[in-house]
Write a structure and sequence with these properties.
Elements (H helix, E strand, L loop, with lengths): L4 E2 L16 E4 L3 H10 L3 E4 L13 E4 L8 E3 L4 E5 L4 H10 L2 E2 L11 H7 L15 E7 L5 E5 L5 H4 L8 E8 L1 E2 L2 E8 L3 H6 L1 H5 L4 E6 L8 E8 L15 E2 L21 E2 H4 L15 E8 L3 H10 L1 H5 L2 E9 L14 E8 L3 H15 L5 E2 L9 H4 L6 H11 L8 H8 L2
Parallel strand pairs: 2-4, 3-4
Antiparallel strand pairs: 1-2, 5-6, 6-10, 7-11, 8-9, 8-10, 12-14, 12-15, 12-16, 13-14, 13-18, 17-19, 17-20, 18-19
The structure holds flavin-adenine dinucleotide.
Flavin-adenine dinucleotide binds next to strand 3, helix 3 and strand 10.
Length: 422
């Protein structure tokens, strides 16, 4: 007898999208996932619903949150294998307690490993690839309900990782791990925009993970956040005056929602509690926002920032905050960082799609011609025709999907419009 539950909540996290799926099923075992997939003509996986668009949607959605996470660390191989619905924050705490770490985390620890992997989610740091780049193996349920294991030795694996849910329902993910480490976070203010654009490489390379949080108007950026690895005994202080920024008075930070954020002020702590901006045990925000992001080739970032500053007042009318982060190149075919180092130019907008969609065409007209690729999990307007030239391996990816899923069980309207095209 099936133990599958049905979830009646139809909204994504931000409540800017309502799934049109007739059912959202929550099986309690991998066997049940196999039965659900085999029995349905159109089915896809749903993670923790943190995407801002219709990417997950189809007739029947399957969320794997009731299947035990069961993390298995293989110290000799340097990997952990975990259930795909596991939240990064839960995995991170477990790994740290066992003496291990992931290379990086996104701003939010609440997102699922499977969902983040599928969309090329990233954190920051010149030497840090996307979270997907740490994936060394996947177990997935294919269209006929069979279980398939793939790893880095499997032909086409680099196409399957940032898979947009098109290859099947991923049940378990294997990730590279390393020894655990401590990190401190320090916030700075007063960095002039001109200095950021001029010294972009020095500033973004000044810590393990660097974020610039800002509006586009004005002469200075709002915040520079440096996340620095702390080795035994130091450093005592992190200074950014040589970069043109001064330490932020603590009163300037987070006075509205202080308990949401991970600890700043240079207090060292485990990577799991410092690399995300938000704390796992609190609500990240009310969800009243729309996010968009474009992964811009690093060698075009000065042009991009200068042009966006030119329309800064228009952007700021509907913007809550922008974040700039760097991401190292990976080899994953549909990754925003595929084959080139990139800068994530992120916009957290007010929850007003109509106003966002009035400014987004101008942003896309600047960033797409510079090679900017939209984050698959965030809100964007461009369709397949404009996106195709940005992904040299798109045709190969489409052929791989057609081989794995000839009947289109995992295809949906979003993929037809944004990836497959005509
Ligand atoms: C507050 C907030 C902060 C964010 N911060 C960052 C950030 O720092 N960096 C960044 O890059 N992005 C960030 N994002 C975006 C987020 O990481 C992506 O949207 C990610 O895909 C969300 O994962 P999810 O589990 O919610 O996926 P969902 O939104 O549920 O699904 C996304 C896609 O993944 C597929 N998928 C999910 N699970 C599986 C599975 N088991 N098997 C196959 N396919 C699956 C779905 O079919 C769908 O195509 C943020 C989003 C929010 C709301």
């Amino acid at each position: 007898m099936t133990q599958t539950h049905t979830n009646t909540d139809r909204s994504n996290w931000a409540k800017n999208y309502v799934y049109r799926a007739t059912e959202i099923l929550e099986p309690a075992s991998i066997d049940e996932v196999q039965r659900v997939v085999a029995a349905n003509r159109r089915v896809r996986a749903l993670g923790t619903r943190h995407s801002f668009n219709a990417l997950p949607d189809t007739d029947v959605l399957v969320h794997l949150g009731r299947i035990p996470s069961d993390p298995v660390i293989d110290a000799a191989a340097g990997t952990v294998t975990v259930g795909s619905a596991t939240r990064y924050g839960d995995l991170a705490r477990h790994l740290h307690s066992e003496g291990f770490a992931l290379h990086n985390l996104g701003s939010l620890p609440h997102i699922s490993v499977g969902g983040a992997t599928a969309t090329g989610t990233h954190g920051s740091g010149d030497g840090n690839g996307t979270l997907s780049s740490a994936v060394s193996g996947l177990q997935l349920v294919t269209a006929d309900g069979d279980l398939l294991d793939v790893d880095r030795s499997t032909p086409g694996f680099d196409g399957m990782v940032v898979g947009l849910g098109a290859f099947g329902v991923v049940t378990r993910v294997t990730l590279d791990v390393r020894p655990t480490f401590d990190v401190r976070q320090d916030a700075f203010v007063g960095l002039p925009w001109d200095r950021l654009i001029e010294d972009f490489d020095a500033i973004m390379g000044s810590a393990y993970s660097v974020s610039v949080l800002t509006m586009w108007s004005g002469d200075t950026v709002d915040h520079l956040w440096l996340k620095t690895i702390v080795a035994e005994g130091g450093p005592d202080d992190i200074d950014a005056t040589h970069l043109g920024a001064i330490a932020a008075p603590s009163a300037e930070l987070f006075d509205e929602q202080p308990t949401n954020m991970t600890v700043f002020g240079g207090v060292a702590g485990p990577w799991s509690e410092r690399l995300p901006h938000f704390r796992l045990d609190s609500t990240p925000s009310a969800g009243e926002e729309i996010q968009s992001e474009y992964l811009v080739p690093r060698d075009r970032i000065r042009e991009a920032l200068t042009a966006l500053r030119g329309i800064g007042p228009r952007i700021d009318e509907v913007l809550l905050i922008t974040e700039l982060r760097t991401v190292a190149a990976d080899g994953l075919w549909l990754s925003g960082a595929s084959d080139r180092d990139v800068v994530g130019v992120h916009f957290t907008f007010a929850p007003d799609t109509e106003r966002v969609d009035r400014v987004l065409p101008a942003i896309e007209d600047i960033l797409l011609p510079l090679g900017g690729r939209p984050h698959w999990g965030k809100h964007f307007l461009a369709t397949a025709e404009r996106l195709a030239p940005l992904y040299p391996r798109r045709s190969e990816w489409i052929e791989l999907v057609e081989r794995h899923d000839p009947t289109g069980t995992f295809r949906n309207g979003f993929l037809e419009e944004r990836v497959f095209g005509d």
